[in-house]
Specification:
The protein has 136 residues and is an alpha+beta fold. The protein contains 5 helices and 5 strands, in the order H-H-H-H-E-E-E-E-E-H. The strands form 2 sheets. Strands 2-1-5 form a 3-stranded antiparallel sheet. Helix 2 packs across helix 4 and helix 3 packs across helix 4. The longest helix is centred in the first third of the chain and has 20 residues. The radius of gyration is 17 Å and the shape is elongated.
Length: 136
C-alpha cells in the first residue's frame, strides 16, 4: 500500500481489504494496551512493529482512527539526556522554546539539542468500544 493510497482514504469510505485489516489490527492493539493502562501513550514506531509495517502505515491507521474520534494526537517533549518527560502538548499548541526539566532541573531547548519531541496518541476508550461494537 502506497502513501498516496493511504492519503486518498480520507475521501473514500470503501477502504481496501488491506486498509481494513491494518485498522482492525490497530484497534486490537489499542484495546489490548489501554485495557491495562487507559492512559497509555501510543507511539507510531511501536505500532509499526506490531503491524510489521512502517511508521507511515501506522500513522495513517492512527489518522483514520483520529477522524473517527478514537485517538488524539499529542507532542511529547523529553529531556534528551534522561528521556524523562518534560511536558505534553496538543499538536495545535505551540511549544515554548525553553522548558525546565523536572528530572535534571536544567533549562532545555531544541536549539541546544537538550530536549527532543515525539508524536504520540491517546485513546478515547468509550469511542474505541463503540467502534468495536459497530465493526462486529
Amino acid at each position: 500500500m502506497s502513501f498516496r493510497d493511504l492519503l486518498r482514504l480520507r475521501r473514500n469510505d470503501n477502504h481496501s481489504p488491506r486498509v481494513r485489516e491494518v485498522v482492525r489490527q490497530t484497534v486490537e492493539y489499542l484495546d489490548r494496551i489501554t485495557s491495562s493502562d487507559p492512559e497509555a501513550e501510543i507511539r507510531p514506531a511501536m505500532l509499526a512493529q506490531v503491524l510489521r509495517d512502517n511508521e507511515v502505515v501506522a500513522i495513517s491507521a492512527l489518522y483514520l482512527l483520529e477522524q473517527a474520534g478514537i485517538v488524539t494526537p499529542h507532542v511529547g517533549v523529553y529531556c534528551r539526556a534522561t528521556m524523562a518527560p518534560i511536558e505534553g502538548y496538543s499538536v495545535q499548541q505551540p511549544i515554548p522554546p525553553m522548558l525546565p526539566c523536572p528530572a535534571c532541573f536544567e533549562e532545555h531547548s531544541f536549539d541546544d539539542r537538550t530536549m527532543t519531541k515525539e508524536l504520540f496518541f491517546t485513546v478515547n476508550r468509550d469511542a474505541l468500544r463503540n467502534y468495536e461494537r459497530k465493526a462486529a
